[in-house]
């Protein structure tokens, strides 16, 4: 069972309409509420057996009690216990008669209604609403309404903050085929502790609890106030180790309700611009907040502004429209434009998967969404790479070179955080040593941002510092093809491309070509700075000790790297020796149209085969389409598509876009479905661990860059819509050089409006030159060039 559509406003609501404990962890992920500063999983307030709750604060990492650093599972602000005549309301103690939840993507509000019955058949209705404020990223709010329906009852509501939280650590190795039910699977994991309580108490009616991360020394403070809409017969404050709460009791007649509203403030010592102690700031957040309705209204208004820039609307297919907006919602709650020291982990702020680490996913899969809809957020995400540049320099030194090398998995410092083994300790990862391309991917993102925004102040400052120091790394990491040679070809040995089925390979096509591109563009930026901003170049050179002759070395190395650049190269070998690997055909697909591993194969024994986790060469042609002829792209797409198992959620969206570029529209729709519904339909079976947030970014890219045919480069904006037949229109906005272009794409004609002051803008639509005047809607035919 997956999430269902709402019967009203179907493209804006995700619903759960019964209670199934085996699917509860899935809904905990998809119902995550957040605001980029924090994310809280959609667990029931009262919890259930097998629950995996979690609140995650961006940038709060700790390595204590763990082999590599974790994004800390932070205190739980939802914790609530409701008793009716002494009997606890929860799915294990009572019978669930009805259960409904609805996530409103438009406002970020999660609504819930559950009807419970006790052993005597007496029913109680529990309603809740929760949100993480998008207007005040330090603020969360919860509203609880309890109504006994059949008999008078004493209703007790206890709600507060629970700081007794742990991270999943290691799963013991069990015999093959061993499985555990939903009620026990998380209990089988070892746990790690990252927080120690440092204080608790009450400031008037505001409760607070503080803790410190054990290794990283970050102070975390939560404060809350809970107020009821009627006078309780009893009210008391509760405080014990790692826990504060308010308990209130009410005498209610049948049909009478009590509502308790809770405001929560959160602060840490790592918050940008932090001044006062975190506990004082958390309390101040609670005291300045108004009632739940006011908090929700302010947050909804902030969401309205976000959606005005970010909405990508499909008209004619409600299910696809929901999936696309669901992706956009989760992207928006994953990033914080106000904090350039944090980035988006592979599971965003929705789960513990991948320990909250940052991969290349941000630069390649997610940044394009923010670049064209929320450029300030895109700038903040790139700021993280400058913030962690000292760590990248350490990684390079640890691996025997100068310059800077970004780690495969990054956290707060920029040092390598990739574990060496799987959680059960049975299989070795080599990604930390060999998946080097992330460094070139960061350079690619920096230059895409500069091309789209025209922000030369960034490019010639932080951007150049990263580009130049990482270029130094590549020059030293490359080796001559012939040992001892001082000229001739350069190679990259013992690497791994995006296809993680094959390690210890030489001259991976994706890596080599991206390194060449990186070095070429770094040298080009240096030339531009020397001509246009010599003072900025001098400042960067002084910071990193750059000598005048180094850029010439980058340009020389770029020309010597063995890399596939011939536009008529035919099928490009993924790495040296790939064509000699055993061909193992893919013959089975599951109910979600995802390829199955051929019998006898798994993630860790495909080294000697032609099977791919995701295809490096197709990804390369996605990033650098102008480098390869259409015939070459088609030939490579067809060759590698047949060998790809799509065991990375990044893979389907890339296939969809490249498929559209080479004329394979039917497969593109299928791959769009795989990407768009990876979490809504749980088509990889692991959504319970957290969102596939890179796939959310990929889904937006399929819609806009794929079906919308939108491309942006130094020569301007191009549109070439090729919508599925079931889509009547595709509508979205893109930021370009400080202004916005609103596009309404259709099968027969498309309309464009340029927003913002300034001169006209020229765009190209299906090869036609179209002049946009600010404020005027222009409609043009959709078809071939005139």
UniProtKB/TrEMBL annotation:
<dbReference type="InterPro" id="IPR012341">
    <property type="entry name" value="6hp_glycosidase-like_sf"/>
</dbReference>
<dbReference type="Pfam" id="PF03636">
    <property type="entry name" value="Glyco_hydro_65N"/>
</dbReference>
<dbReference type="InterPro" id="IPR005195">
    <property type="entry name" value="Glyco_hydro_65_M"/>
</dbReference>
<protein>
    <submittedName>
        <fullName>Glycosyl hydrolase family 65 protein</fullName>
    </submittedName>
</protein>
<comment type="similarity">
    <text>Belongs to the glycosyl hydrolase 65 family.</text>
</comment>
<dbReference type="InterPro" id="IPR008928">
    <property type="entry name" value="6-hairpin_glycosidase_sf"/>
</dbReference>
<dbReference type="InterPro" id="IPR005196">
    <property type="entry name" value="Glyco_hydro_65_N"/>
</dbReference>
<dbReference type="Pfam" id="PF03633">
    <property type="entry name" value="Glyco_hydro_65C"/>
</dbReference>
<feature type="domain" description="Glycoside hydrolase family 65 N-terminal">
    <location>
        <begin position="16"/>
        <end position="270"/>
    </location>
</feature>
<dbReference type="InterPro" id="IPR005194">
    <property type="entry name" value="Glyco_hydro_65_C"/>
</dbReference>
<dbReference type="GO" id="GO:0016787">
    <property type="term" value="F:hydrolase activity"/>
</dbReference>
<keyword id="KW-0378">Hydrolase</keyword>
<dbReference type="InterPro" id="IPR037018">
    <property type="entry name" value="GH65_N"/>
</dbReference>
<feature type="domain" description="Glycoside hydrolase family 65 central catalytic">
    <location>
        <begin position="325"/>
        <end position="701"/>
    </location>
</feature>
<feature type="domain" description="Glycoside hydrolase family 65 C-terminal">
    <location>
        <begin position="715"/>
        <end position="772"/>
    </location>
</feature>
<keyword id="KW-0808">Transferase</keyword>
<dbReference type="Pfam" id="PF03632">
    <property type="entry name" value="Glyco_hydro_65m"/>
</dbReference>
<dbReference type="InterPro" id="IPR017045">
    <property type="entry name" value="Malt_Pase/Glycosyl_Hdrlase"/>
</dbReference>
<keyword id="KW-0328">Glycosyltransferase</keyword>
<dbReference type="InterPro" id="IPR011013">
    <property type="entry name" value="Gal_mutarotase_sf_dom"/>
</dbReference>
<keyword id="KW-0326">Glycosidase</keyword>
């Amino acid at each position: 069972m997956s999430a269902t559509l709402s019967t009203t406003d179907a493209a804006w609501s995700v619903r759960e309409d019964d209670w199934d404990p085996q699917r509860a962890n899935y809904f905990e992920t998809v119902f995550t509420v957040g605001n980029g500063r924090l994310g809280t999983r959609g667990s029931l307030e009262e919890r259930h057996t097998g629950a995996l709750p979690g609140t995650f604060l961006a940038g709060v990492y700790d390595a204590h009690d763990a082999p590599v650093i974790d994004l800390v599972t932070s205190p739980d602000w939802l914790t609530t216990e409701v008793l009716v005549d002494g009997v606890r309301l929860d799915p294990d103690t009572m019978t669930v008669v009805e259960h409904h939840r609805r996530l409103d993507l438009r406002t970020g509000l999660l609504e819930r209604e559950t009807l419970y019955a006790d052993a005597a058949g007496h029913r109680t209705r529990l309603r809740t609403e929760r949100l993480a404020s998008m207007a005040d990223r330090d603020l969360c709010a919860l509203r609880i309404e309890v109504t006994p329906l059949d008999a008078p009852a004493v209703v007790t509501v206890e709600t507060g903050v629970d700081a007794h939280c742990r991270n999943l650590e290691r799963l013991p190795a069990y015999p093959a085929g061993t499985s555990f039910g939903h009620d026990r699977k998380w209990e089988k994991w070892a746990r790690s502790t990252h927080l120690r309580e440092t204080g608790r108490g009450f400031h008037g009616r505001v409760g607070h609890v503080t803790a410190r991360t054990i290794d990283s020394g970050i102070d975390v403070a939560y404060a809350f106030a809970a107020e009821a809409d009627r006078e309780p017969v009893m009210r008391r404050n509760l405080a014990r180790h790692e826990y504060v709460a308010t308990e209130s009791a009410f005498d209610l007649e049948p049909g009478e309700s009590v509502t308790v509203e809770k405001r929560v403030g959160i602060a840490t010592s790592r918050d940008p611009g932090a001044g006062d102690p975190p506990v004082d700031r958390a309390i101040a957040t609670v005291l300045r907040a108004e009632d739940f309705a006011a908090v929700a209204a302010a947050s909804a208004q902030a969401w309205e502004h976000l959606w005005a820039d970010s909405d990508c609307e499909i008209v004619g297919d409600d299910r696809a429209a929901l999936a696309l907006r669901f992706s956009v919602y989760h992207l928006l709650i994953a990033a914080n434009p106000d904090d350039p020291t944090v980035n988006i982990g592979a599971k965003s702020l929705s789960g513990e998967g991948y320990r909250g680490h940052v991969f290349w996913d941000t630069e390649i899969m997610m940044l394009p969404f923010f670049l064209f809809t929320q450029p300030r957020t895109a700038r903040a995400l790139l700021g993280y790479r400058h913030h962690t540049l000292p760590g990248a320099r350490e990684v390079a030194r640890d691996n025997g070179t100068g310059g800077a090398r970004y780690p495969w998995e990054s956290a707060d410092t920029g040092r390598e955080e990739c574990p060496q083994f799987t959680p059960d300790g049975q299989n070795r990862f080599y990604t930390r040593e060999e998946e080097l391309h992330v460094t070139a991917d960061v350079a690619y993102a920096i230059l895409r941002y500069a091309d789209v925004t025209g922000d030369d102040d960034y490019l010639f400052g932080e951007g150049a510092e990263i580009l130049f120091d990482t270029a130094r790394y590549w020059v030293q990491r490359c080796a001559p093809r012939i040992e001892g040679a001082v000229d001739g070809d350069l190679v990259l040995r013992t690497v791994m491309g995006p296809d993680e089925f094959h390690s210890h390979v030489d001259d991976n096509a994706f890596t080599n070509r991206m390194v060449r591109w990186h070095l070429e563009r770094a040298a080009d930026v240096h030339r531009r700075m020397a001509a246009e901003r010599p003072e900025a170049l001098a400042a960067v050179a002084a910071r990193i000790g750059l000598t005048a002759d180094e850029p010439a070395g980058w340009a020389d190395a770029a020309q010597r790297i063995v890399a596939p650049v011939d536009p008529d190269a035919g099928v490009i070998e993924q790495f040296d020796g790939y064509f000699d690997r055993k061909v193992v055909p893919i013959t089975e697909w599951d109910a979600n149209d995802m390829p199955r591993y051929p019998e006898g194969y798994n993630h860790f024994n495909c080294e000697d085969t032609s099977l791919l986790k995701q295809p490096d060469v197709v990804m390369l042609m996605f990033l650098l389409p102008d480098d390869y002829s259409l015939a070459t792209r088609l030939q490579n797409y067809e060759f590698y598509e047949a060998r790809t198992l799509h065991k990375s959620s990044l893979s389907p969206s890339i296939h969809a876009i490249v498929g559209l570029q080479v004329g394979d529209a039917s497969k593109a729709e299928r791959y769009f479905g795989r990407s768009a519904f990876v979490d809504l339909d749980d088509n990889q079976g692991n959504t319970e661990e957290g969102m596939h947030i890179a796939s959310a970014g990929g889904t937006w890219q399929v819609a806009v860059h794929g079906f919308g045919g939108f491309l942006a480069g130094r020569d301007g904006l191009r549109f070439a819509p090729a919508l599925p037949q079931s889509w009547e229109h595709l509508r979205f906005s893109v930021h370009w050089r400080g202004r916005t272009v609103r596009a309404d794409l259709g099968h027969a004609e498309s309309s464009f409006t340029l927003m913002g002051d300034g001169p006209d803008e020229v765009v190209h639509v299906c090869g036609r030159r179209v002049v946009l005047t600010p404020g005027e809607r222009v409609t043009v035919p959709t078809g071939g060039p005139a």
